[in-house]
Structure prediction request, 228 residues.
Amino acid sequence: MRELYIANKNYSSWSLRPWLLMTQLNIPFIEQVVPFSQQGNFAKFRVFSPTGKVPCLVQKDIVVWDSLAIAEYLYESYPAVWPKEAKARAFARCAAAEMHSGFSALRNICGMSCGHRVKLHRITAELQRDLDRITELFEQGLTNFGGPFLAGKQFSAADAFFAPVAFRVQSYGLVLSEPAMAYVQTLLNLPAMQQWYQQALAEPWVDQAHDEEIATAGQITADLRQTG
Prediction:
């Protein structure tokens, strides 16, 4: 049985991606949650992950320690991970790879926290550029492949990779175009996303460092976590 090692659901956007992919596609796995530590995570995460980071998928003697690599590894056994049609599959892979390596302003300014609601101090030019590109990418996928998902009728890894963006839009009140916002809502409404969200709000762990980073971005208007 595969074991997926993740960190706090409230904060860990990288953990969300493979977890959502596997949950939404009914790919069996055992969830292993290793919470963030105020004393540092590297040594603790190195027990199961060569990089000392999450997520990490372990299946017997196979260790896959990167979210995009996890998607490709799963695709070998579960073709539904990527779209069936070649053009859609190419687009989906490019979109996921762009998310994997880009959008640094969005990541740095709007750290993921499912439970927070934040009014940003300002939208920087760099953040607006990321939001414009995300809007463009969402509209391109929806127009070319018909929606409701990014590369067509079926959920794929591309959607899983942009799921943390959906939570950021919700938490920070970010504004995209109407079609892009509709796609964000499609992601937020997924049963697996709702499951992650509710479990994130119920977590007993608060990571002070993450919370302090979020507070620097804007005014916290609500903390919906049970520990908040």
Remarks:
- The longest strand covers residues 218-223.
- The mean pLDDT is 97.
